[in-house]
Write the structure tokens for this entry.
Amino acid sequence: MCRALPWVIDFVIGWLLFLALCGRRRLPAALAGGTAAVVLQLVVDGIARHLNLYRVHRPVFSLLGSSVFFTFGPAFTMGALFGQFLPVSRLWQGANMLVFAGLFLIEEHMLMLTGSLHYIHWCHAASFYVDVLVFAFLTWLLDGLRAIVPAFFGRAQKKAADTDGWKDE
Amino acid sequence: MSGGDRLHLFVFTVFSIGVALALALWLLVLEKAERERD
């Protein structure tokens, strides 16, 4: 029972945070970010499970080896907030990736301490590296979507040159 | 559930709320920076 509850607690906290911060006018961005994050989480965790890198214990309800409470909790809500708050500046985008990856790593470590997650052939450095790559891909994907439909994100890119370098700070 | 399990869960919950608050703070900083930029 103890190993199952952390997934439910994470689900509740993720949704409370999302409901507190989501802006109604940027809901399409949230939906795009959340959906992309869910797909990426299922693919990455599915591959990791197949390769026996780490194991999820007591997922309550399992979806492709992941806990449904994690997939539609923190993975969806954090992806949604990532999409809604995606900065235009490249510098802030880089910082954003590192902050999200770092906070996910802390949460993952706490899931390990409760016994809900177990590393087999895995380590924190690898986890952080994969998280950064996932958030880099999400940034690329959502930034591309923003260039096509800027109205979804509530703020448009001012001009192409703004996103091509670091000089916009 | 033993007392140790309850303590683990309590610590997990407190730290998870801490992570959520840290993320909220970061997103507010991001939003402020973007508004100033606009």
